[in-house]
């Protein structure tokens, strides 16, 4: 048992409570509390990752109650990797938000609401990754979603309320599906502990197991924005404040992907729905990238590319192989970082150009070369230009697909290659129009010529450096992802960590 495992959940919650008690005064102290809490979460996550890789899954039984009676938190290689990357991303986005002065001067994003909500969002994300039972995962999802309801509608502007309403309705539908799946599994097996479920589901009638699996995957697919359950996303994320949209785009959909990975490796390893997942992956790739190609707003374009690249991750899961899972884990880590960076860069474009509409942008390569660099590097990374991490992840997925073979898998390999090329086309279109074309004759009234706040640049640059670190350390990181994939394909490792003396059945 490790006392560190609950800390990624507890630290943000305690920090949010302290900030609420402080009230609207002492903004400098409140900023320091936010940064200190998120930095501490990152430090704990890194330690948990080292221990999980060296010693196996780390567990904590809250209140001293043994599983399955009490709440068990588990940090294996996958959850520890997700924790570490998520903590790094949330910290960098907070730095960006402080630089943007979201906290004090932006009338659309009041400090007293933003900071506690953001910390509770972080706590919910960490709880979802660490949860050892489905109901605690549901609690983590709801913590995250309640905070996101506040964040996506900050300021109460018409556009944000309209987009937030769609987001809330879809999120509630997903939560209902999740609860239905939990109820079915509990009624059939008498437990919601995932280690016990992995042992008991095999004894269920096939029809009952399929109903539970379909409900669970549908709930996670909505959260992950898998096509055709993704139509809500392009309207919801672009209207949110830049730091909020960035962390939503980079992180929240990956929690749905994480749920799909857990369901298909730990709970339902028989692979009955793999063909359905392959078809959904192909449709997500093509629908997302075709939607991106026709957009003239940078944030909406990035939202459609987000949908298309979720298809890559579902593709890797559906292959049901160690190579496919390893490539998926690597690609998830890469995409969390790169997609967040691109949304932050879109915020920098908006601040300097006064808009994110390509029809009214131009000449930023001369007036804002640093913004150009902060957009260009992650754009090429997302497009899969070698030797960047996007190329490494896509190459791993394509190799795993070619090794498995089959008509549907071959079609997915071809679709993944086409999607990568069209993604690059869409991002080059943004670069050409916003940076290389001539400045508009009538610049938007909100365009700024003053220097960008240092913290905004620092938050974006830190994520660019992190994404480049994935390339520099591509070999060791990919090897770690391969060990995480091997652990996922051996559910008994997870079960023994939760029930060291047996009793999972």
TrEMBL record:
Transmembrane segments: 31-50, 80-99, 119-152, 164-188, 208-232, 244-261, 273-294, 301-319, 325-349, 370-392, 412-431, 452-473
Keyword match Cytoplasm: no
Domain NADH:quinone oxidoreductase/Mrp antiporter transmembrane: 131-409
Mode of membrane association: Multi-pass membrane protein
Keyword terms of this UniProt record: Cell membrane, Membrane, Transmembrane, Transmembrane helix
Subcellular location: Cell membrane; Membrane
Major subcellular site: membrane
Signal peptide range in chain numbering: none
Family: Belongs to the CPA3 antiporters (TC 2.A.63) subunit D family.
Official protein name in the record: Na+/H+ antiporter subunit D
Originating organism: Actinomadura fibrosa
